[in-house]
From TrEMBL:
The gene is Kcnmb1. InterPro entries: K_chnl_Ca-activ_BK_bsu. This is KCMB1 protein. It is found in: Membrane. GO terms for cellular component: voltage-gated potassium channel complex. It comes from the Eukaryota. The chain crosses the membrane at residues 20-43, 166-187. Belongs to the KCNMB (TC 8.A.14.1) family. KCNMB1 subfamily. Its main location: membrane. GO terms for molecular function: calcium-activated potassium channel activity; potassium channel regulator activity. One of its GO terms (biological process) is detection of calcium ion. PROSITE patterns: PROKAR_LIPOPROTEIN (PS51257).
Amino acid sequence: MLGKKLVTAQKRGETRALCLGLGMIACSMMMYFFIGITIVPFYTKSVWTTETVCKVLKANIKDKVSCPHSESSEDEEIFPYPCLQVWVNLTASGQEVMLYQTEDTLERNPKCSYVPDKLENSKEVKARIETIASNFKKYQTFLCYYDPGGTQTSVILSRLYPSKGLLFAFLWPTLMFTGGCLIIVLVKISQYVSVLSAWQ
C-alpha cells in the first residue's frame, strides 16, 4: 500500500516537472517571437553600424522648436523645446556632419541633435539641454556611429539596440529554454531509472 502511494506521488511529481519544463520552453519561444518582431527589426534597419571617433566643431542652442514628425503634433506644439544642434568632424571621412542622440532622434526631429520627452518640465528640459551642450564643448572627442554605406550622412551618439543589448535580450529566453529542456531530460532519466530498477 505504501509502495503504491510512493509511486503515485512520484508520477504526480514527474507530471508537474514535465509541465514546468514544457511551460518554460513555451514561454521562451514566446519571448523569442516577441524579440524577433520588436527589437530585431530595429537592429537590422539601423545603418549606423560602424564606430569611429567624432570631434565637436560647434554646439549651438537655437530657438524653441516643435517636432514636425510627431504623430500627436498638437501636444508637441504645446511643449516647445530649445533646439540643440551639434556638428562634428567625422574622423573616418573628414566630413562635417550633424550628430544625433539615437536613430529615433533623427526620425522625430531632423533639425535637432537632442529631442526631450514632451512630458518633462520645460525648465528641466532647458537646463538639461544646456548641460548637454556644455558637456559637448568640454569633452570634444568621443566615439560615435556612422553609416559606412553612405546612405546617411549624419552620425549618432549611441544606438538604440547595440549588439551587446541584442545578445542580452536573447540571454534570458535562452536560459529559460535550456532550463526547461534540462528539467524534461532529468525527468526522463528518472523515469528510465525507475523502470530499470523495477524490471531488475
